[in-house]
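Proteins fold reproducibly. Next comes a concrete instance:

***
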Amino acid sequence: MLATTIGLLRERGYAGLRINDIAEASGTAKTTIYRRWPTLTHLVVAAMQHALGERAFEATGDTEADLDSLVESGLGFLVDGRSDLLAVALDIHRQGDTELRSTYRQSIIDPIREQAITLIATAVERGELEENTQPDVMVDAVIGGLVYRSAILAEPLSLDQARAFWRSVLSPRRCQSPQPRRPSK
């Protein structure tokens, strides 16, 4: 059902998606679908989670390696020819359904974004990045740049290019020799 849902989202977009069509295409009764997912929103978000795959991330304390891993696990769908899921995600976000957008954001976007913000904030605390670095702005700039390149410019993006991109965005904010921040008085 999840793969069928993603297939229909790719083909028709969210506005053209109906539970009846998912049930028919997957050979599943509508009652079975509704027993598992009470609304189309829940089913769509579950289908996207399934399509994106495991996005677990464990920080090691090495900022550069951690950001590399996070880009690969959290934003990997933007690279290496898998950006068709980005089109589905963008379609979801342009819908007027605030529950859909909110549920999608809480389930798909926020976990990765918050982990990235924490990594940048930790790098600031360690003195690896300038004290006035705004972690949320930095993370949004990286994610926005990667989405722009993939969705708007439609340029293929490799994992190495995505990693080089985040490094180029953070590079001007790096401290020459990391110094821990002094506690505020």
About this structure: The mean pLDDT is 88. The chain has nine helices and no strands.
